């Protein structure tokens, strides 16, 4: 039997913060999870439960109080260029053009290689013609695409995304979800994606990890075994979505409200 080694392994993660009054606040409790190479995993859970904290630990920004995260079987103890983190608030550099932003992390390539990589990603995010535009000339959705392209161009094998579409309006968000699925299909990166939007998680992920209230434990891991791009009217899609709503403790009215 071939046992596949996980790309990312969370081993018994616990995290406590010390509050200002000296009290201990436990945020994560016994989190165990394996993520396969090339897998798209979404993490959902109530606000303040510890989603960002978990991602920060996986990326090496924070040390757990107990347990460890391994990537390619190596314990994570600091951030690394092979893994990039995309935040909710856009952090493209305002003083650089679209091309310069995308090429920012490319230090080891020849100028020709660099141009080729930039061209490829500009095309992938649909911003051909905007290569020399500055962020102030772009919409929120365009800026977020530049951010994603910049992250991908630096050649990471793991992407950590913390509500990367959270600041966008609903329509742009829908479009960006579809774009993200397409980019992931082309690039086959391992993605760990935090969202509090259940619909978003079922549209994007191979598996959805549902966290409990703080201290967060894994309440359930739900497989989303549906072909992409996903048909949002498919009864199986709706069943999985409602199952996750229920796991998050939303009653029937919550589910109905969320459908509107
Ligand atoms: N540096 C810190 N020091 C103390 N407490 C912290 C720190 N960072 C986060 N916390 C606490 O840890 C808990 C989890 O925070 P976290 O940001 O991980 O939640 P989240 O699930 O990402 O929430 P949201 O959905 O609102 O983004 C919160 O109660 C927060 O107050
Ligand atoms: Mg958060």
Could you characterize the architecture of this molecule?
With 260 residues, the chain is α/β, with parallel strands linked by helices. It has a domain of 179 residues: Rossmann fold (3-Layer(aba) Sandwich). The chain has 8 helices and 10 strands. The strands form 2 sheets. The chain has a 6-stranded mixed sheet, sandwiched between helices. A 4-stranded antiparallel sheet has the order 2-1-4-5, with helices on one face. Helix 3 packs across helix 4 and helix 6 crosses helix 7. The longest helix is centred in the C-terminal third of the chain and has 18 residues. The chain starts with 7 loop residues before the first strand and ends with a helix. Adenosine-5'-triphosphate binds next to strand 2 and helix 1.
Topology diagram in text:
Elements (H helix, E strand, L loop, with lengths): L7 E11 L5 E12 L4 E5 L6 H9 L6 E6 L2 E2 L7 E4 L11 H5 L8 H14 L15 H14 L4 E5 L7 H18 L2 E5 L3 H7 L2 E5 L6 E6 L11 H13 L4 H8 L1
Parallel strand pairs: 3-8, 3-9, 6-7, 7-8
Antiparallel strand pairs: 1-2, 1-4, 4-5, 9-10
Helix pairs in contact: 3-4, 6-7
The protein binds adenosine-5'-triphosphate and magnesium ion.
Magnesium ion binds next to α1.
Q: Can you give the mean pLDDT?
A: 90
* Level-1 CATH class name of the domain at 8-82 and 156-259: Alpha Beta
Look at the helices and sheets and give the structural class: alpha/beta
End-to-end Cα distance, whole Å, is: 47 Å
Instruction: Please tell me the CATH architecture of the domain at 8-82 and 156-259 by its name.
Output: 3-Layer(aba) Sandwich
The main sheet orders its strands as: 6-7-8-3-9-10
What percentage of the residues does DSSP assign to strands (E)?
15-25%
CATH H-level name of the domain at 8-82 and 156-259... which superfamily? P-loop containing nucleotide triphosphate hydrolases
In percent, how helical is the residue content?
25-40%
Summed up, the helix count is 8
Instruction: Say what the CATH topology of the domain at 8-82 and 156-259 is.
Output: Rossmann fold
């Amino acid at each position: 039997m071939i046992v596949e080694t996980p790309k990312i392994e969370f081993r018994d993660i616990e995290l406590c913060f010390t509050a200002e009054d000296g009290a201990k606040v436990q945020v994560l409790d016994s989190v165990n999870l394996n993520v396969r190479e090339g897998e798209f995993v979404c993490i959902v859970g109530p606000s303040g439960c510890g989603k960002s904290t978990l991602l920060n630990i996986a990326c090496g920004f924070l040390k757990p109080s107990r347990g460890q995260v391994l990537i390619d079987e190596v314990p994570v103890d600091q951030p690394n260029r092979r893994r990039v983190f995309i935040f909710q608030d856009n952090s493209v550099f305002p003083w650089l053009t679209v091309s310069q932003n995308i090429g920012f992390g490319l230090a080891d390539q020849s100028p020709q290689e660099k141009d080729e990589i930039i061209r490829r990603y500009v095309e992938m995010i649909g911003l051909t013609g905007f290569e020399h535009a500055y962020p102030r000339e772009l919409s929120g959705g365009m800026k977020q695409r530049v951010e994603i392209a910049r992250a991908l161009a630096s050649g990471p094998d793991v992407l950590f995304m913390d509500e990367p579409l959270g600041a966008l309006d609903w329509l742009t968000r829908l479009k960006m979800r579809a774009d993200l699925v397409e980019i992931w299909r082309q690039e086959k990166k391992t993605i760990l994606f935090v969202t509090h939007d259940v619909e978003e998680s079922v549209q994007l992920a191979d598996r959805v990890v549902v966290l409990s209230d703080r201290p967060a434990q894994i309440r359930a891991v739900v497989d989303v075994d549906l072909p992409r791009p996903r048909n949002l009217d498919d009864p199986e899609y709706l069943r999985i979505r409602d199952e996750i709503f229920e796991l998050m403790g939303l009653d029937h009215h919550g589910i109905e409200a969320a459908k509107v």
